[in-house]
Amino acid sequence: MYNVMSIRFLALAGMFVFLQAHAADPLIKLPSPADMEAATKGKIAPAASAAAAVTPASAASTVAASASASASASAAAAGSADAVASTPAAASATASASAPHAAAKVVDAIKETAKQTQTTSKKPAVSDAEDEKNMQNLAAKIAERVTAVRQKQAVRAAQETRSANGGNARNGRNNHATVRKARVAQTDASKEAARVATHAAHWDYEGEAGPAQWGKLNPDWAQCATGARQSPIDIRDGMRLDLEPIRFDYRPGPFSVVNNGHTVQVGVAGGNRITITGRTYELVQFHFHRPSEERINGKSFAMVVHLVHKDAEGRLAVVALLIEEGEANAAVQSVWNNLPLEKNEPVRPTIEFDPSQLLPARRDYYTYMGSLTTPPCSEGVLWLVMKEPIRLSAQQIAIFSRLYPMNARPIQADSGRLIKESN
Ligand SMILES: [Zn+2]
Predict the structure, then answer these.
(1) 16, 206, 344, 392: least CB-packed within 10 angstroms?
(2) Domain limits for position 68
(3) Exposed (0-12), middle (13-18) or buried (19+): which is 379, by Cβ within 10 Å?
(4) C-alpha distances in angstroms, 299 versus 26, 411, 422?
(5) Residue 265 CA from chain centroid, whole number
(6) What digits encode the pLDDT tens for the residues 112-149?
């Protein structure tokens, strides 16, 4: 018994597993626009198409279940504007040569599962409606993942270009052909991300997919509705303490700018770190909200920058820089100068970006435990909100407003959470 939607799901599941396995690969062959179109419309699909052809519906749901399990594990990374690419920058490009081989393995594994299940079960395990929903969830994750992978690729390609231009290429992979190949992969990926996004589960800051609905739009986003330690909050009544300073170890490096449909996000190369309470987190990306999501004693700010860091165990720490109107900000201007014309198509400037240029002079801060402020709203995020705002000119704020006049999640209940602040 064949089930069309399960086959579509299986195809997407195969694609997702492949992306999961090769997120670190700068030359990963991402699914083509045609593949994604076919998969979301239920026609023949990419890596998993061979498997789908021999797969009964029940096998499809088995494979889908395992894909979902791996998806949940990385939901914090895959689904969110606040989230980070799930592969640490440190896990650098080593897989390019083995990628086709590994892809074949994925397909073999799916085929094997299909064969085994074919003989033991004939009844579809899930309903069409559930299938459709699961498929859309998976498509959404793939779209987000493709964007994240692509942004990583953009940064790496920029590094390789610089290295090649500097004439100190260490081996055969740091050559122009490699860079060109990576560029082609990026172009394909961005088109897919944009295309899939139109088919995938969607969230927004207002309307039918607005913040009040996030928890219902996708089972993996349930915490948006049910979580008790959500962000942002109105920061007040902090416990004044002699808090250890955050050690910032930021440096100039290549960067990429993407308009991901929820915000303007800047991807950075590895090597930018903060250390706090004995734990070191690496900066993965930063992005902007307007107005500020967090409030201080009820006061909202014009905008906020969220610098998203991740430690070796995958824990997140977000440094928030409140923004008020004032003089122009040169660091932010270099981001604005490279705003992409198209959504989900990162720009890779040839100049470097130094994240330390964003930081305020005074480093006092508030700190509390919260969540991502975008789906999947994962909790366990260490928030570090700098007390001293940074400044952008009215014109610089107006530029962001033209793209995103309002991209702030409403204030969440603090539910008696402990808030600490520097003396
Ligand atoms: Zn944010």
Answers:
(1) 206
(2) 4-199
(3) middle
(4) 43, 12, 19
(5) 10
(6) 444 444 444 444 444 555 555 555 555 555 556 666 66
Task: Please list the helix, strand and coil fractions of the chain in percent, rounded to the nearest 5, in that order.
Answer: 40, 20, 40
- Whether residues 284 and 182 fall in one domain: no
Q: Quick one: pLDDT band at residue 267, thresholds 50, 70, 90?
A: very high
Q: Which of 165, 199, 233 is the last residue of a domain?
A: 199
7 CA to centre of ligand 1 in angstroms: 36
| CA atoms of 349 and 346, how far apart (whole Å) | 10
How far CA 145 is from CA of 153, 317, 333, 357, 415, in Å, comes to: 12, 20, 28, 29, 33
Model pLDDT, residue 295: 98
- 141/179 same-domain check: yes
* CA 262 to centroid of ligand 1, rounded, Å: 10
Work out the average pLDDT over 332-339: 98
Span 319-332, pLDDT tens digits: 999 999 999 999 99
Domains in the chain, number: 2
Residue 209: inside a domain: no
The mean of the pLDDT values for the chain is 73
Q: pLDDT digit string (tens) for 73-85?
A: 333 333 344 444 4
**CATH code at position 378:** 3.10.200.10
Query: Active-site residue numbers?
Result: 262
288 backbone φψ class: left, alpha, beta (φ>0; ψ -120 to 50): beta
